[in-house]
Amino acid sequence: MSSLSAARTLLSAVSATGASQAVQVDGGLPVFLQVSGITSATAVLQGSLDGTTWSTLGSALTADGMVIVANAPKYVRANVTVYVSGTITAKILY
């Protein structure tokens, strides 16, 4: 699996709770998640070793921002866990 040279969109202007599809990344390397469009919502970066059991990586975002994980597991995804308002976009770079 080779690293991307450009960010990949995981969520595009969503207005509900729910997770993106999982992305297989280079385990052990950095992953950057940038989230925008949050008005009143919570978005998280989640990681998994098997693509089935998910855990939150880094801090939950309740405002536009970025989560950086120095040593990512094999699979990652973006997840809107709380939604009240906004059109949320999440992009990942690994």
Summarize the structure in words.
- With 94 residues, the protein is mostly beta strands.
- Helices cover 0% and strands 64% of the residues.
- It is built from no helices and seven strands.
- It has strands spanning 8-14, 18-19, 23-24, 31-48, 55-61, 65-69, 75-93.
- Strands 1, 2, 3, 4, 5, 6 and 7 form a seven-stranded antiparallel beta sheet that branches.
- A hairpin with a 6-residue loop joins strand 4 and strand 5.
- The mean pLDDT is 95.
Short descriptors:
single chain, 94 residues, mainly beta, seven-stranded antiparallel sheet
Task: Summarize the helices and strands and which ones pair or pack.
Blueprint: E1 8-14, E2 18-19, E3 23-24, E4 31-48, E5 55-61, E6 65-69, E7 75-93
Antiparallel strand pairs: 1-7, 2-7, 3-7, 4-5, 4-6, 4-7
Kindly summarize this structure in a few lines:
By secondary structure, this protein is mostly beta strands. Helix content is 0%, strand content 64%.
Structural class: mainly beta
Low-confidence parts, pLDDT < 50 over ≥5 residues?
Answer: none
Largest sheet: 7 strands, antiparallel
- Approximate helicity band: under 10%
What is the β-strand count?
7
Helical element count?
A: 0
Give helix and strand order, one letter per element, not per position: EEEEEEE
Distance between the termini: 10 Å
Radius of gyration: 12 Å
Summed over residues and divided by their number, the pLDDT gives a mean of: 95
The percentage of residues in β strands lies in over 45%
Morphology? globular
